[in-house]
Amino acid sequence: MMVIIYSSFLSVWDMTSLAVFGTGRIGGGVAARAVSSGLIDHLVLYDCNQALLEAQRLDIEHMRCPVSVSINPIDIAICDIVLYTAGLPRNQNIKTRAALLDCNVPVASELAALIPNYKGIIVVVTNPADILTYFLWKATRIPKSRIIGFGGQLDSARFQYELANRSIRCDGMILGEHGEHQVPIFSKTGLNVDIPIRDDILLTLRNASMEIIKGKGATEYAPVYHIWHLIESIIKDARTDLICSAILEGEYGFIGCSLGVPVVIGREGIISIQEWDLDTWENDHFHSAATFVSDLCRRISHD
Q1: What sign does the dihedral 8-11-15-19 (CA atoms) show?
Q2: What are phi and psi of 236, to 5 degrees?
Q3: What contacts 253, CB < 8 A, 6 or more positions away?
Q4: 205 in the same domain as 246
Q5: 178 is annotated as an active-site residue
Q6: pLDDT at 6 over 90
Q7: The pLDDT of residue 303
Q8: Helices 280-302 and 129-140: crossing angle, nearest 10°?
Q9: Choosing from 42, 62, 178, 285, which is the catalytic residue?
Q10: Which conformational region is residue 117 in: left (phi greater than 0), alpha (psi within -120 to 50 degrees), or beta?
Q11: What's the chain's Rg over C-alpha atoms?
């Protein structure tokens, strides 16, 4: 079954303008990749750390690519795509992404205030990405097809890495929350994976990013790579099948939340949401993810 999401944003872009709200490791990395891609002609950078912001601007200007660069926050609202990466990141003392919610909602509110009546596409990276995607959807009143939460691509890549380490040669996808309630989809692999092995893989995946954080302070290369793949799919109208966090209004039987689901990505944002048949183990875990995320979405909606 496929649920089509229609969008009113149908402009044809010769070139693309990109705003990066938060220019740390992830935002800065994506900005540099975008500038060198030849796919954008205007870049807007924003960060509350003025020294970092100016340093990132100058570093990108020194690339000498044919892209105009602005650090004026007023320019964010006129960009085709806004990448939201600002906020407090995880560290060794913050065990789950959901624990960042109260710290990062005010940052999301700051972005929402800068883009009233926004006509472009928002890509949400800041954690907890699913809940902040829902929060920004409510705060900006943007059509749900034009706000996309990041996380499922990265989780799926980590799942594929873990499968390969166990000599399981197949593609794996992760649905659900970008966090503790992620849901590895084994039924799409064509293999019969026993429940104890599934549970063990899930436990490993929940801790996948913390191993990197302990060693170098933050994840960096893989997120930048997959975020750029998402943005590139939008710019090129690639109609790419990806796992992204999307606002649910009945899909998979849930409303009032944003969760990682299979989507088709193009110039209009989320072109469609695909509804996969899940087995019992997957459905139970997806239900737990939806319940967990929905509860947090309701809380921030009432705050």
Answers
A1: negative
A2: -85, 0
A3: none
A4: yes
A5: yes
A6: no
A7: 60
A8: 50
A9: 178
A10: left
A11: 18
**What is the separation, in whole angstroms, between the first and last Cα of the chain?**
36
Q: Which two tokens stand for residue 168?
A: 């399981």
| pLDDT tens track for 279-303 | 999 999 999 999 999 999 999 886 6
Burial class (CB in 10 A: 0-12, 13-18, 19+), 184: buried
What are 147's two structure tokens? 């706000």
Secondary structure string (H, E, C) spanning 208-266: HHHHHHHHHCCCCHHHHHHHHHHHHHHHCCCCEEEEEEEEEECHHHCEEEEEEEEEEEE
DSSP three-state, residue 200: helix
172-218 per-position pLDDT tens digit: 999 999 999 999 999 998 888 999 999 999 999 999 999 999 999 99
What is the rounded CA–CA span in Å between residue 210 and residue 202?
Answer: 14
DSSP secondary structure, 89-140, as one string: PP-TT---GGGGHHHHHHHHHHHHHH-TT--SEEEE-SSSHHHHHHHHHHHH
Structural domain ending residue among the three candidates 90, 125, 149: 149
Each as own residue / partner, the long-range contacts of residues 296-299 (CB below 8 Å, 24 or more positions apart, any chain) are 296/98, 296/101, 296/128, 296/131, 297/131, 297/134, 297/135, 297/256, 297/257, 297/258, 298/256
- Is the Cβ–Cβ distance between 20 and 44 less than 8 Å? yes
Q: Which has the closest alpha carbon to 202: 220, 187, 185, 222?
A: 185
Q: Which amino acid, residue 274?
A: Q
Task: Calculate the average pLDDT of the chain.
Answer: 93
**Residue span of the structural domain in which 33 resides:** 11-149
**What does the pLDDT look like over 138-149, one tens digit per residue?**
999 999 999 999
Task: Answer with the one of 125, 149, 173 that is the final residue of a domain.
Answer: 149
Q: Are residues 70 and 131 in the same domain?
A: yes
CATH number at residue 52: 3.40.50.720
Instruction: Map residue 41 onto helix, strand or coil.
Output: strand
